[in-house]
Design goal:
The protein contains 12 helices and 15 strands. With 408 residues, it is of the alpha/beta class. Helix 1 links the parallel strand 1 and strand 2. Helix 1 runs antiparallel to helix 3 and helix 1 packs across helix 11. The model has no long low-confidence stretch (mean pLDDT 93).
Length: 408
Amino acid sequence: MGGIIIKNLLIAQSGGPTCAINATLAGCYKRACELGFDNIYGALYGIQGLLDSKIIDLKSQIKTEEDLNKLKTTPASALGSCRYKVDSEEKLEKIVQILKSFNINYFIYIGGNDSMDTVYQLSKYIEKIGEDINVIGSPKTIDNDLFGTDHTPGFGSAAKFVANSVYQIAKDVEIYDYKTITIVEIMGRYAGWLTASGAVAKKLCGVGADLVYISEDSFDFDDLKAEIDETFKRTDNILILVSEGIKDSENNFISNTSGKKDKFGHVQLQGPSHIIKDKLKEIYDIPIRSIELNILQRCDMAFASKTDIEESFEIGKFSVDSALNNSGKMIGIKRISNEPYQTKFVLVDIEKVANKTKMIIPRYTDSHFQIDDEFMQYILPLIEGEVDIEYKNGMAQYFSFDKEAIIK
């Protein structure tokens, strides 16, 4: 007579926060409860926290449907995050020992490129040593640069925030009856998806960016000056969008760097918008302003996309279903149609995702990297719909875990 099969699930979050990462966590939790998992754990601060055995019992903290719904519409990473590279077999061995000590047989890691590298390393190591632990990657990144998926959870909400922010900035700068230049810097180290999204305002509302430079572009100051001079023939107030990762013709970042790299080898960038502003001030004796949307674009729930939140929730549920019989996979989104917007979830081999970057499709942009109609068909379904958030005394009400309740 066989013994009782215990189903224990661990979920962790990693990398930069988004509006939708907790919706994925909520979806994971919801489906695990429906499937009768014995224990549902959360690792605080990603894989780094797991290495320190910082694990909490989610069932003891998500007590009601109201708690679950509030978690679903809470921005940032409720479990905490990290940017940590698992770079040795000793660390992999320690992770497996900790998972075994909690009898965890299913692990879902919600994150972006670097997190998928962790899923790849861990799943391969577990396969090598023959342990019965399934590891699944659930995608997340506002940069939209993961291979194997039409788009990433978190991108739609960030794109919506960027598009609306650019629209509001454009309304602000157009009021002056004299020449001005405003430069808006948008996240995107290697891929320009978010910056391209900033051009949506001009397409939909007729007011927005005049010039758009994405990470994939080869940026040249002389070309920029020529574009500015030409644009001043049509308008007095020029709005320029630049990705944080724009490079020169020799593929060097134009931004200042400290020379330092993070643990994954990414160069630490320090603001191309300020450099562009300073150089333009040497040429033009007019008001020139630079604006960094910075971390606001990652998880501003006021502009969260309902499509993004609901889809991310369903991805969480699908992640748990997939973990039952799979390991070393990431959940991908396959688009079936734009109108009506239809997708399905697929499993992608993690080695096809880890340490790769999906650039923006060149055909989506013209010679000045203004977006075309095909990009509009791609982006509009992802930014549709508004999210209902509970407010009290004018402040949004979000869910928080008790991070002191670590299982001893």
